[in-house]
Write a structure and sequence with these properties.
8 helices; Rossmann fold; single chain; two-stranded antiparallel ribbon; 9% strand; five-stranded parallel sheet
């Protein structure tokens, strides 16, 4: 299973699990990228340029992490804009259509902290999972209690690390509501625990490929 990250995942990681205290978590994210399990679309990455310079530089420094937009993705973005003209307002939600379009194009799951809104929600208040439903794209959350399902995360300062007690299988994303419901209710552990860091040859493999 492969994943693409919404911007809020890394921003919240930086806030909740700063790299100076939780380096093993960040190293494992990098390992998962190098294993082509995780990616981020370039527009989501550009949102990071507006905030934390160090975080943006970290993302751009990992080969294969940021995937450029394709014509297919831009066509999906145009479809979303036509169907939901009030969703993007200035910088608000600007990257969200691109995140969905990228996930649809390369058949990956979106990891986002956004929750699904109820029926009859105005366009301006829609969230990624709502619009993703319309395009057969599955969404999961990253942060739970514990932060990753089946995982224990402890500070490296206490000479500990995080381990996965179990992995949970997930179905391939599909457009049926039954599949989307199962994915929403199934705790999923992203494949980033106990991953050996590959040699620092800076491979260019990507979850987008």
């Amino acid at each position: 299973m492969k994943y693409t990250l919404d911007t809020n995942i890394l921003i919240n990681m930086e806030r909740r699990y700063p790299r100076e205290f939780f380096s093993s978590l960040w190293d494992s994210i990098e390992a998962a990228v190098l294993n082509a399990d995780i990616c981020m679309c370039e527009i989501a990455q550009k949102e990071l340029d507006l905030g934390d310079d160090d975080l943006s530089a970290w993302v751009k420094g990992i080969p294969g992490f940021v995937c450029k937009s394709t014509d297919e993705e831009l066509a999906t973005v145009a479809e979303i804009s036509e169907a939901h003209p009030e969703w993007v307002q200035g910088r608000k939600n600007y990257a969200d259509p691109f995140v969905i379009a990228h996930a649809k194009a390369v058949n990956v799951i979106i990891v986002t902290e956004e929750g699904r809104k109820g029926p009859n929600t105005e366009d301006k208040n829609q969230k990624i999972p709502n619009i993703a439903d319309e395009h057969g794209v599955a969404c999961i959350k990253f942060f739970r209690s514990p932060p990753l399902a089946g995982m224990e995360v402890l500070s490296d300062r206490h000479q500990t690390s995080y381990t996965a007690s179990s992995w949970t299988s997930a179905m391939t994303p599909a457009s049926t509501s039954a599949t989307r419901t199962a994915l929403r209710s199934t705790p999923i552990c992203l494949p980033m625990a106990r991953i050996d860091m590959p040699p620092r040859d800076r491979r260019t493999a990507s979850a987008c490929s």
